[in-house]
Write a sequence for this structure.
């Protein structure tokens, strides 16, 4: 089996690596190539384009990286024509991936979209493109399935792969020991994002909040999990400039979160990792003024945090744009570091979010769906037992 896979960002790298392992568990000779990062490379994928060159956020950064994106699309187009894989598997990264899907369909190739665009939040018009260019959508949120089904797009809810990633991870004591943290210390995790621009905009704000919290909470330990797409030296320099003694860790983010009493998390997949880890946290996000103005016009949901969207209500504070300030972060986080009772309510809410993400086994179900599309299993319509629809 020959699979071409595109994971343009750090979270896609994580989920793609789990999918590749699940595919190879079922068919050991499977060849996977495409766009990815260090985790996909470690899982055995042949990297044709490193996704560190493509991870962008906001309109202005997309424009500045247009040449890199065009070059990568040319590599993908040529590869698809030459290699003619059994399927093209797309993970998030919607604008780029939908162009790749158009090329694949022009070549008569099968296309599976695993972790599709968040059409329920903005740009619902992409549903039409997905319907024309994708053979099956594999959703990771339960409410997404009906959206695609109403449009006549073949869809399967497989559950969220982060539930798998969290299974068997160390608990609080073990996580602290592995990272080198005291069992008694108050621990604050800072997650500045996986894209360069996110880090530039948000890490200084997070660091200043951590500096102020350190004055209020004696012995506070600050830990920063380093995403594979981020330059660790840049983080070290920024922490030094802020006067914050931060421990940078290459441990999985979910382990760092499990070791923490509270966290400040950049909006994105990491917010779900925090929910699964059960650590109280605040969501922060900033983009350029132009992107923010367009976002206010286009985004059609009340909350932007994935945790709050899954919960169907505001469970976690969201500090966006000018509200993503050290003052607001300190105000939200200080009670969780100083008062155990103040954490209890959010922990109960996060338990509810974890349950809604589905049972373990998402990567295995996604692998079986891909194999059914390329004829390695009986058709989905005959064999599938969808999560929550058994």
């Amino acid at each position: 089996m020959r699979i071409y896979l595109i994971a343009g960002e750090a979270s896609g790298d994580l989920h793609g690596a789990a999918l590749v392992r699940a595919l190879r568990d079922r068919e050991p000779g499977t060849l996977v190539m495409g766009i990815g990062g260090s985790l996909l490379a470690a899982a055995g994928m042949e990297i044709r384009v490193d996704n560190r060159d493509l991870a962008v956020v906001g309109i202005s950064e997309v424009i500045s990286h247009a040449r890199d994106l065009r070059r990568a699309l040319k590599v993908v187009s040529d590869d698809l024509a030459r290699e003619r894989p059994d399927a093209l598997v797309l993970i998030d990264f919607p604008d780029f991936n939908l162009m790749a899907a158009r090329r694949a369909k022009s070549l008569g190739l099968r296309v599976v979209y695993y972790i599709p665009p968040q059409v329920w939040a903005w740009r619902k018009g992409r549903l039409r493109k997905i319907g024309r260019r994708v053979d099956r959508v594999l959703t990771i949120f339960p409410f997404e399935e009906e959206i695609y089904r109403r449009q006549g797009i073949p869809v399967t809810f497989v559950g969220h792969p982060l539930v798998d990633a969290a299974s068997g991870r160390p608990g609080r004591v073990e996580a602290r020991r592995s990272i080198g943290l005291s069992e008694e210390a108050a621990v604050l995790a800072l997650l500045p994002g996986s894209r360069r621009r996110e880090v530039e905009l948000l890490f200084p704000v997070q660091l200043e909040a951590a500096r102020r919290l350190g004055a209020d909470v004696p012995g506070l330990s600050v830990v920063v999990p380093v995403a594979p797409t981020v330059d660790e030296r840049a983080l070290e320099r920024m922490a030094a400039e802020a006067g914050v003694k931060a421990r940078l860790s290459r441990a999985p983010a979910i382990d760092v979160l499990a070791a923490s009493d509270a966290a400040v998390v950049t909006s994105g997949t990491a917010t779900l990792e925090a929910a699964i880890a059960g650590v109280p946290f605040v969501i922060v996000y900033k983009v350029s003024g132009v992107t923010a103005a367009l976002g206010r016009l286009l985004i059609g949901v009340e909350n932007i945090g994935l945790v709050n969207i899954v919960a169907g209500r505001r469970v976690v504070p969201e500090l966006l744009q000018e509200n993503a300030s050290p003052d607001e972060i300190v105000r939200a986080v200080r009670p969780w570091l100083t008062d155990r009772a103040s954490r209890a309510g959010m922990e109960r809410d996060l338990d509810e979010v974890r349950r809604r993400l589905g049972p373990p086994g998402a990567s295995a179900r996604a692998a079986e769906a891909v194999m059914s599309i390329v004829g390695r299993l009986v058709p989905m319509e005959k064999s599938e037992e969808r999560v929550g629809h058994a």
